[in-house]
Amino acid sequence: MHVGIIGGNGWIGGALARALVAGGSLGEADLTLSCRSAPPGWLPGARWTRDSRELAERSDVIVLSVRPQDWPAIDVAAPGKLVVSVMAGVSLADIAGRLGTGRVVRALPNAAAEVGRSYTPWTAAAEVTEADRAAVRLLVEAIGSGDEVGSEAEIDYMTGLSGTGPAYPALLATALIADAVAHGLPPAVARRAVVEMLIGTGRLLEAKDEDPAETVKAFVDYRGVTAEGIEAMRAAGFDAAVAKGLGAALAKSLALQGA
Ligand SMILES: NC(=O)C1=CN([C@@H]2O[C@H](COP(=O)(O)OP(=O)(O)OC[C@H]3O[C@@H](n4cnc5c(N)ncnc54)[C@H](O)[C@@H]3O)[C@@H](O)[C@H]2O)C=CC1
Ligand SMILES: O=C(O)[C@@H]1CCC=N1
Question: What are the UniProt keywords, alphabetically (predicted)?
Fold first, then answer.
């Protein structure tokens, strides 16, 4: 299988290309990567080009990984080919119409792709075959894990939930570290404490495979220090702030479609 990534030097496109090679799914020579500037220097054995049409001709699977605002300028046709878009807010119908193929998938990774831990939901147009789905799973699993979901509405919502990747946990980490430093902790110690706490939490939730709400309840029922912290955060509007943030992210995701 030859994979072409339009925007292959970017954050997500580059992470996908490097993961495919590092994980042994593809050799460098099985990749064509396009960019607008000079090739970045990594994956020197891949074919680097500025020409999207050349990329499409060489590829069995074409990954669209440019920013939504750059999508209208992409000059490419891919009649009948499998196209996988990772772009936020660009619909299956728009991609199918522009590229001349019904074999279109929308996948929504996140920046943890850089460390092989993206969660990537994806949805497929009607003409996508079982063999195409196997190809999509190979891409998704190169950068982490994922699920096929039933509708584009779910992808549009997940764009502002899991697509944001490390952003919300990093926001929480920033607030925790700021408070620790305000209480006199050395910044390096505060940072290490919070980052290790996030890593440990992820591992614990994964290992226990239980609803995170159960973990919260266990601490509330313990009625110690943590329960006081949780209840004060909730009373100050923690859940409402999260819901408001997700609402704003969803609105932006939907607004991109009309842009
Ligand atoms: N960064 C993230 O956390 C996530 C990004 N996405 C989506 O992935 C897509 C790519 O995002 P990033 O990698 O973050 O952006 P990026 O800006 O890092 O990469 C996009 C790359 O596309 C290149 N490009 C633009 N026009 C081009 C053209 N005509 N031919 C060849 N290359 C071209 C740019 O030079 C750039 O290197 C976006 O549509 C975004 O919505 C989805 C989920 C998460
Ligand atoms: O913030 C963004 O627009 C990109 C797409 C989804 C997550 N990151």
Answer: Amino-acid biosynthesis, Cytoplasm, NADP, Oxidoreductase, Proline biosynthesis
